[in-house]
Design goal:
The chain has about 230 residues and is α/β, with parallel strands linked by helices. It has helices spanning about 1-15, 35-40, 75-85, 90-105, 125-130, 135-150, 170-180, 205-215; strands at about 20, 25-30, 65-70, 115-120, 150, 160, 185, 195-205, 225-230. The longest helix has 17 residues, at about 90-105. Bound molecules: zinc ion.
């Protein structure tokens, strides 16, 4: 009897709070899939807020600034969280991570978000976007936009014309080759004279972000790259 009562209590709890934190398992009353404690403490920061770019990543001279929220943890919780954002359609989680990144960017003295900043999420190839139904980079950009007020480049302005194979397992030069010609600038107007920040979930060698940024390089002022993780 008691165990039955406990079971129905659990069922009620499941019904009231169907979402739990992906890291600690606590029940949540929203759809963000990450509790505020884990958002603050579960992952390793890449650098101090307001400090210069992440160490060890080689940026082309024309990329003014790069920032990432956390260090990628292969096989760890962050990998799991980012996998869910990419493949499980957890839109609110993607937006929440973007907001967290937005707060960090606001404190960054180098990658300044200003009135003229336009966020450029890395586009997915249309066939992949159709299959998935959303673009994780766009979700992250939405979060950054909410916090900073920076506008997001219109989706039609930049296209992914090459459905590239996964970058995993490729070395730096193979990644670069794989990405070459992957993007096509359709409309220059949204980028002209602006400060552009490329937005992605993870930066490894930077091949994707740099190839994308190169499409708008001649049009805009500063170009930066902001990601949730740095691998
Ligand atoms: Zn948690």
């Amino acid at each position: 009897m008691i165990s039955q009562l406990l079971q129905s209590g659990n069922d009620l709890f499941d019904l009231l709070y169907p979402v739990s934190c992906l890291v600690c398992g606590d029940r949540l009353d929203d759809d963000r899939h990450l509790c505020s404690y884990c958002m603050e403490h579960a992952f390793m920061p890449t650098n101090e807020e307001g400090e210069e770019s992440c160490e060890g990543l080689v940026l082309p001279g024309w990329i003014t600034m790069q920032d990432a929220l956390w260090e990628f943890d292969k096989g760890g919780f962050l990998q799991d969280v980012l996998h869910h954002v990419k493949y499980s359609g957890l839109a609110d989680l993607g937006i929440a991570l973007g907001e967290e990144l937005g707060y960090k960017l606001l404190k960054n003295r180098f990658l300044r978000i200003a009135d003229d900043t336009i966020l450029l999420p890395v586009p997915l190839h249309p066939s992949r976007q159709r299959k998935r139904g959303y673009n994780q980079s766009e979700l992250i950009a939405r979060g950054i936009s909410t916090v900073t007020g920076a506008r997001i480049a219109p989706e039609r302005a930049m296209r992914r014309v090459k459905n590239t194979r996964t970058q995993t397992g490729l070395n730096a030069s193979a990644r670069k080759k794989n990405l070459s010609g992957a993007f096509e600038l359709v409309d220059e107007e949204p980028f002209r004279g602006r400060r552009v920040v490329v937005v992605d979930d993870v930066i490894t060698t930077g091949a994707t972000a740099f190839e994308l940024a190169a499409q708008v390089r001649r049009l805009c002022g500063d170009i930066g790259v902001a990601t949730i993780a740095r691998a």
